[in-house]
Backbone:
């Protein structure tokens, strides 16, 4: 009775075994399945259709100058204009699918997906992904969001990112940040004579702030920034609350950015609209198979 050995062994193992037994070997072809008779009467199955062997076949074709049968591969782009251009150049007219993941800030193009006009299935192994990257300015302001910085450190940061400030005027805000001074005082708010004749006095601490050489500059409570969340995208208005604190005689300043999730959502939605316009394809929100 003939025995079939289906152990997961490479073709080189069979060649070595044949050489040891003194059996003449026959060249085999990658991408096919071969049956190799053994000296004990069994038959070894040599499977050259695995991914590893097919990769070797592709390497051989590339070395011999043979063009691939079709386009495959996965490519990543970081700006929507480049992504749209790649989709236009390499996508199939009726077989390209676009999938958006808002949370990840990503759009995936399946360039050889299922055909829309009939039941023809696509292989789905040629893909391009738009992986959006935050701009340095967005990352910088996000890095100080909600933090209180020493006055000099905040002023240095503001000076480096002055073009991002739209309201009030950036130079005005920088002068405020560098010249703001604060003082702590205490005011008597109430005196109550108790039944035992004692007087109870309540004090309330007050913190006063002024800016400018003569204290004539108004310290804003809110500012507006112009920031592009994503590389290659448009800038958006981002409002922020300006906060200053006096703790143990040390003045600190900081910003709290408002509604960042809404800004990111709008920015991603606008990029999706740009991609749809540039590629003439509808973007689906979800995850592609595979």
Residues:
């Amino acid at each position: 009775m003939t025995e079939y050995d289906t152990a997961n062994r490479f073709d080189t193992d069979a060649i070595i075994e044949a050489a040891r037994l003194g059996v003449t070997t026959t060249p085999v072809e990658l991408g096919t399945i071969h049956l190799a008779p053994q000296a004990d009467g069994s038959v070894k199955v040599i499977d050259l259709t695995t991914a590893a062997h097919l990769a070797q076949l592709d390497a051989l074709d590339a070395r011999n100058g043979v063009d691939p049968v079709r386009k495959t591969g996965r490519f990543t782009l970081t700006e929507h204009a480049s992504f749209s251009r790649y989709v236009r150049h390499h996508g199939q007219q009726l077989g390209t699918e676009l999938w958006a993941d808002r949370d990840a800030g990503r759009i995936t193009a399946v360039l050889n997906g299922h055909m829309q006009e009939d039941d023809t299935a696509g292989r789905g192994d040629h893909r391009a992904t738009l992986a959006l990257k935050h701009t340095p300015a967005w990352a910088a302001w996000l890095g100080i969001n909600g933090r209180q910085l020493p006055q000099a450190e905040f002023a240095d940061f503001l000076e480096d990112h002055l073009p991002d400030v739209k309201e009030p005027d950036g130079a005005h805000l920088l002068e405020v940040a560098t010249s703001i001074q604060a003082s702590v005082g205490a005011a008597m708010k109430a005196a109550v004579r108790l039944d035992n004749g004692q007087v109870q006095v309540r004090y309330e601490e007050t913190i006063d702030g002024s800016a400018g050489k003569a204290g004539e500059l108004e310290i804003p409570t809110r500012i507006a920034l112009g920031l592009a969340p994503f590389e290659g995208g448009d800038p958006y208005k981002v409002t922020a609350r300006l906060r200053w604190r006096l703790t143990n005689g040390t003045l600190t300043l900081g910003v709290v950015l408002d509604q960042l999730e809404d800004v990111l959502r709008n920015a991603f939605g606008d990029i999706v609209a740009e991609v749809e316009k540039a590629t003439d394809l509808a973007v689906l929100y979800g995850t592609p198979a595979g």
